[in-house]
From TrEMBL:
All copies of domain Response regulatory, residue ranges: 3-119
TM annotation in the entry: none
Keyword terms of this UniProt record: DNA-binding, Phosphoprotein
Xref: InterPro entries: CheY-like_superfamily (IPR011006), Sig_transdc_resp-reg_C-effctor (IPR016032), Sig_transdc_resp-reg_receiver (IPR001789), Tscrpt_reg_LuxR_C (IPR000792), WalR-like (IPR039420)
Native organism taxonomy: Bacteria, Bacillati, Actinomycetota, Actinomycetes, Kitasatosporales
Keyword DNA-binding appears in the UniProt entry: yes
Species this chain originates from: Streptomyces rugosispiralis
Domain of life, per lineage: Bacteria
Pfam family, one: GerE
Domain HTH luxR-type: 134-199
Protein name (Swiss-Prot/TrEMBL): Response regulator transcription factor
Amino acid sequence: MVRVLIAEDMHMLRKALVALLEFEPDIDVVAEFSDGAEILPRARELRPDVAVLDIDLPGVDGLTAAAELSTAVPECRTMMLTSLGRPGNLRRALAAHVSGFLLKDSSPDKLSDAIRAVAKGERVIDPQLALAALDDGPQPLTPRELEVLRFAAKGEDSGQIAAKLFLSVGTVRNYLTSAVTKLDARNRVDAIRIAREAGWL
């Protein structure tokens, strides 16, 4: 019996996943919840075989939770479900020791088969997403440009970013301008959108 924990913040989708998996005679859903902060304590308590996680969860996002699980509950393998088929997200998931990565529009059979495979120690990656990741070019921003853009994405202005990074306001503006140019963006907001869609932020 494969013991599964599910974290998905969309109530209807989470209930549908649970209902689908309950039809499988060899899969037992031992916990389901909507907030990422519950993943680690519940996994420590229940010791599931597989954690099926949404990437974008409130509290603690799915990728952060996956990385925490790989250290704290190493026998629990993780599988990400996402509606955002971005190559950058796949790369971040692999860096977080995720064993499976499926899109939410995958068929129910594909999901249950993937859970069984991940429980056996196999890796399951959506093939279209794997191809897209191979075709995707390298991330063009320097670590500092990415850091500045990440603060800008949180709504902080150049002065606030400069204070946090111990830089001058002019230097911060230069980094932002450089990021906008490298991403062929129209402005700072467009650069943030491009970086988010690529999974770099």
